[in-house]
Design goal:
- By secondary structure, this protein is α+β, with helices and mostly antiparallel strands.
- 31% of the residues lie in helices and 25% in strands.
- Strands 1-8-7-10-5 form a five-stranded antiparallel sheet, covered by helices on one side. A four-stranded antiparallel sheet has the order 4-11-6-9. Strands 2-3 form a two-stranded antiparallel sheet.
- It starts with 13 loop residues before the first helix and ends with a helix.
């Protein structure tokens, strides 16, 4: 699923991509200012190479065939990123969806006093930007590259063309984005409830 060209416009090493793909969410609740809340201790002032928990895996379209992946990626633009590059910034506008094809990125939110709450690590096979893609609201977090890598960018306009030509494929994509959003929300709520209890 890298950006180099092949007969279908992409070099899709599907099996290795699925095996290496991962998404992890690591929000921990605790006391803060006398109230139960999400505690950002442990997520800031760490070296750039601090490993994040990789125990929870979320793949985008894990059961999609190579042919269908080639169709999806033919509607995207490949974009390279460099380590420490800010790929998305909280508050930015835009309806594009991002699929990581190589490398690692980190999702973070700025906190008080210049600190940063690191929310998740994104690896090959992860998708991000789905909230703004679906609801058109400003970006809710900042995404920064941890390593050099590549991603495929699917604009809303390109998705609409894909949906017109391949409606079943577009429906599968939307259903899977809904599944991923739901799983991320459930995980966050579970962490919050554990902190209140």
């Amino acid at each position: 699923m890298h950006c180099s060209k092949s007969g279908h416009g992409v070099d899709l090493d599907f099996s290795s991509w699925l095996l290496s793909a991962a998404y992890s969410s690591i929000i921990s609740p605790a006391h803060a200012q006398g109230e139960r809340t999400m505690d950002s201790a442990g997520f800031f002032d760490y070296p750039d190479d601090t490993p994040l928990d990789q125990s929870s895996t979320l793949l985008f379209l894990p059961d999609l065939s190579e042919d269908d992946w080639s169709r999806v990626l033919s509607f995207t633009q490949c974009r390279a990123f460099r380590a420490k590059e800010t790929v998305l910034k909280i508050g930015d506008s835009g309806r594009a969806l991002y699929i990581v094809s190589r490398g690692a990125l980190e999702v973070a939110m700025p906190q008080k006093r210049g600190r940063v709450l690191r929310i998740a690590r994104l690896a090959e096979g992860a998708v991000f930007g789905e909230q703004a893609f679906l609801d058109g609201q400003p970006r809710s977090a900042t995404v920064q590259a941890v390593t050099d890598g590549e991603m495929h960018v699917l604009s809303l306009e390109s998705f609409e063309i894909l949906a017109a030509r391949h409606p079943d494929l577009a429906r599968m994509m939307l259903m899977d984005l809904g599944r991923i959003l739901s799983m991320r929300l459930r995980r966050t709520m579970e962490m919050a409830v554990d902190g209140i209890g």
